[in-house]
Write the structure tokens for this entry.
Amino acid sequence: MHIVILGGDGYLGWPTAMYLSRKGHQVTVVDNYFRRESCRELDVAMLYDVPSLPERARIWHELTGLEIKVVLADLAQPENVRNLFSGDVSYDWAVNENFTGVPEAVVHYAEQPSAPYSLIDHNHANTTITNNLLVTNNLMFAVKDMAPDVHIVKLGTMGEYGTPNIDIEEGWIDISHKGREDKFLFPRQAGSIYHTSKIMDTDLLWFGVRMWDLKVTDLMQGPVYGVDTDESLLDPRLRTIFNYDEVFGTVVNRFIVQAVVGYPLTVYGKGGQTRGYLNIKDTLQCVHKALETPAEAGELRIFNQIMETLSVNQIADLIATVGKTRGHAVEVKQLENPRKEAEEHYYNPVYQGLLDLGVIPHYLTEKVVREMFEVVEKHKSTIRKAIIFKGIKW
């Protein structure tokens, strides 16, 4: 397939590009460096330097002979999205600059991905809402107007559901009411502006599916952890972006960095918050399986993209255990929770659909954590303790 990846410079976007390229697909990645620019604006560092997107593509080509075309563009501008389908596109890196043709699928990662970022203040909330919704709307209309057979694979989030006191189904729920029955999107109750924007994404695409028979797969993903994939092992310069701060660092990645530099693991409140997690390698599997078995025209197919559920305390205990065996003096510290969230709650999501498609899960084991420690320890000298926790409240 020819696959376009929106947000192809990000934590998930770049590993997905390499993975799909290695599987034999033609891949074009698009990004505007929003994540990198936001890190500079907020003065939050990455664990190691990451080459530019064209440089990454060049390294990938030198090592594998495979091409990942690169477009640097702001997808909140509708013409930049439409150009990806019309051929009026200028590549910032490509071996062959001829237009590859209308894609068969688009993977949509091009969103502001952080709940804390979205609640720094009203300006960052506005940025989150405008970027996320405009990109999704631009993509929906471009597909509707120019390439209605394209399969859209959009990254959603388990955070859309919140923590209801019933089992979380895979996107849909059957309702019986006053003697009648119907099927609805599972009720959403987001805990941040970011997660609220993701609910709006789902609603936009559900509209496009109902009105225009679009083909959409929405992957409700939990927090992701990990550094290396099989592709990045070819050369450390191919590693994905790795943040360890409160704004962009996911909890497992962040806790491992804290353990390495002797910064107490920041458990918010009682630490009973339970979520669904997955290894970055499983994100790649899930997206690939979704692409191999596309949604039908007029279908919004939803999968809950997690592999196991863990509490913050369970994660902290595992990382502390492994860290101590590696000679680190790891302390777990409970902080007053800066977030308005239930710390003890029922949480039982269904997540069978992707396993049925053939995804083979990785779990958060001591071995996986040790491998992550090995990478972080090599970059210990670059870690800035002062940026780990900023105390963003809501």
User: Anything to note?
Assistant: The mean pLDDT is 97. The chain has one domain: 2-387. The longest helix spans residues 122-146.
